[in-house]
Design goal:
This protein has 183 residues and is mainly alpha-helical. The protein has helices at residues 6-12, 19-30, 32-49, 67-76, 80-109, 116-126, 131-144, 157-176; strands spanning 53-57, 61-65, 149-153. The chain has one domain (19-176): Up-down Bundle (Butyryl-CoA Dehydrogenase, subunit A, domain 3). Helices cover 67% and strands 8% of the residues. Strands 2-1-3 form a 3-stranded antiparallel beta sheet.
Length: 183
């Protein structure tokens, strides 16, 4: 019939999805936001603590610097305003955003609407999320300005940028998710 053999028909047949399987899939899908935010926290920790910048002076001496090393160096040099800006925008603000997004997700799961000012403050802080990447770029440019200094980005940039992207995705998912309704 219709040129399809019984073997082909059985290979193309898929079992029907049961309602229990649908419920399990919906339950698992609800947890994607916290999983994304925990992955963002792990990437952030790796991006802050692993070497982000490699500096070579006189083509012999090499030093690997993480964001935490940079903050320590800035504090030791007496440049505490720049160190505080780096700590605020690279460590504190992303961690606060992750915690706030988890709280907003939990409120929505409980069927409560989150406060509007909280969502607006998250949107406002998102505009400043890339300031830390800008500061790292400025540090690289400053290092390359010296005649005998070579600076380049190390591997920790990738988890750091991934953390920023995952936080942005989490914020978008939380802001668009409908609140769960209580039965």
């Amino acid at each position: 019939m219709n040129g399809i053999s019984d073997d082909m028909r059985s290979a193309l047949w898929t079992p029907p999805i049961t309602s229990g399987l649908r419920r399990a899939a919906r339950r698992a899908a609800r947890w994607h936001v916290p999983m994304v935010l925990f992955a963002a926290a792990a990437c952030l920790i790796a991006g802050v603590s692993l070497p982000m910048l490699v500096v070579r002076e006189f083509f012999i001496y090499g030093q690997r610097l993480s964001i935490l090393d940079g903050v320590t160096a800035l504090l030791n040099a007496g440049d505490w305003p720049l160190a505080m800006i780096l700590v605020l925008f690279s460590i504190v603000l992303p961690l606060v955003k992750i915690g706030t997004l988890l709280a907003l997700w939990w409120q929505r799961e409980q069927g409560r609407l989150p406060r509007g000012w909280l969502i607006r403050s998250l949107e406002w802080s998102g505009r400043w999320a890339m300031l830390d990447v800008f500061v790292v770029a400025l540090a690289i440019v400053a290092m390359k300005a010296h005649a005998f200094t070579e600076a380049y980005v190390a591997g920790a940039v990738y988890p750091f940028v991934a953390a920023i992207g995952l936080i942005a995705y989490g914020a978008r998912a939380v802001s668009r998710a409908p609140s769960a309704t209580k039965p």
